[in-house]
Amino acid sequence: MRKRGIITAALATVAAGILGAPAAHADGHGVGVYGVWANSVNVRDNAPGTTGCGVYPSVANCPSVQTKVNAGETVTVICQQPGQPVGGNPYWVLVSTTNGNHMGFMASYYIKNTTNWIDGVGRCQ
Predict the structure, then answer these.
(1) How many whole angstroms separate alpha carbon 112 and alpha carbon 98?
(2) Residues 15-73 pLDDT 10s
(3) pTM
(4) How many CB atoms lie within 10 A of CB 43?
(5) Phi and psi for 122 in degrees, rounded to 5?
(6) Residue 109 CB neighbours (<10 A)
């Protein structure tokens, strides 16, 4: 039940951004819009009932790919969660795509940020 509240709050934050609130904290200090530096990065489904995806995001726990994002595109980072390391980065981020059509987990490794953990972005649990 707590997870549903976090996701609901995160969706409200995303909606506020889409409806004209300023995109906050693109510098690595909080929830907001971040760039992606690689091509064909998977945004994986975090649908209710997906075994373990929200607890420990990984390719195995989040097998369904909703969409892909490419270098130069942006995503809205909502929260982050420890998961399967990718490129030495052990965190995954719950994101909303720029058009707002998809929300799911992607490896934080592909986010333009100077550290693995994004300061000011809370855990998804």
Answers:
(1) 15
(2) 444 433 334 444 567 899 999 999 999 999 886 655 689 899 999 999 999 999 999 99
(3) 0.77
(4) 23
(5) -80, 170
(6) 19
